[in-house]
Design brief:
It contains nine helices and three strands. The chain is mainly alpha-helical and about 220 residues long.
């Protein structure tokens, strides 16, 4: 039987996908904070349901590094290297970084990175935490992973078709990390690191943007 936690998790994922998309014209920081709040709703509901064991589940908080995790970490590092060289792609620069300012001060950069970490931690707590664990309970592990990939791709579709397709292998990697380590924190950390790197690479690759640290401008060669 489908639980209310599973249903609300699915709704919060889709609502956040709409919120983060270009359709909503709010400031990116506001989108991330409000999106984080969306993701806390199913966790709050779960906390009031004695039949749901998510908050006591190992997937919430255990942490260790297995051989599979180390392989996944190496894959993430390889993807980040590829991302560095692809950051100057025209389509990427049209969408990233979401904050469209010319001058990036330390305060602005840290604020952006902080909101990414908060948002993606809440995102993965639901996507590769509550939603994945409930899907496994309802449908079994293989259908649950397939559903996770499909929902992840659909949630990114409003941003771009390219991002929707790219999210599928990333979602699979995050599922493997979380299930092998029995903790969504692997996905949260991996996703956050990649988002931070992508933000910095995109700013660096954008000819109209620059870093300003302590009044010293970092210019591109």
């Amino acid at each position: 039987m489908i639980s209310i936690e599973w249903l609300v998790s699915l709704l919060s994922i889709m609502a956040s996908g709409i919120l983060i998309s270009p359709i909503v014209k709010w400031h990116p920081f506001a989108k991330r904070i409000i999106g984080s709040i969306f993701f806390l709703v199913p966790v709050l509901i779960s906390s009031f349901n004695p039949a749901n064991t998510f908050l006591q589940s190992p997937i919430l908080g255990s942490f260790y590094l297995s051989g599979t995790n180390w392989v996944a970490i190496l894959i993430i590092l390889a993807l980040m290297i590829g991302d560095y060289f692809a950051a100057g792609d025209k389509e990427n620069l049209e969408n990233y970084p979401p904050v469209r300012v010319n001058s990036w001060t330390p305060k602005l950069l840290l604020s952006s990175l902080f909101t990414w970490i908060v948002y993606l931690s809440c995102y993965e707590m639901i996507f590769r935490g509550l939603f994945l664990s409930e899907s496994i309970r309802l449908f079994g592990i293989v259908p649950a992973i397939a559903l996770n990939l499909a929902v992840c791709s659909l949630a990114h579709l409003l941003k771009s078709r390219r991002e929707a397709l790219a999210s599928i292998p990333m979602a699979f990697l995050m599922c493997v990390l979380s299930l092998d380590g029995q903790s969504f924190w692997y996905a949260a950390i991996g996703h956050s690191v990649m988002a931070i790197a992508h933000e910095i690479f995109s700013i660096r690759a954008n000819p109209s943007m620059r870093f300003e640290f302590f009044s010293i401008q970092t210019k591109k060669a």
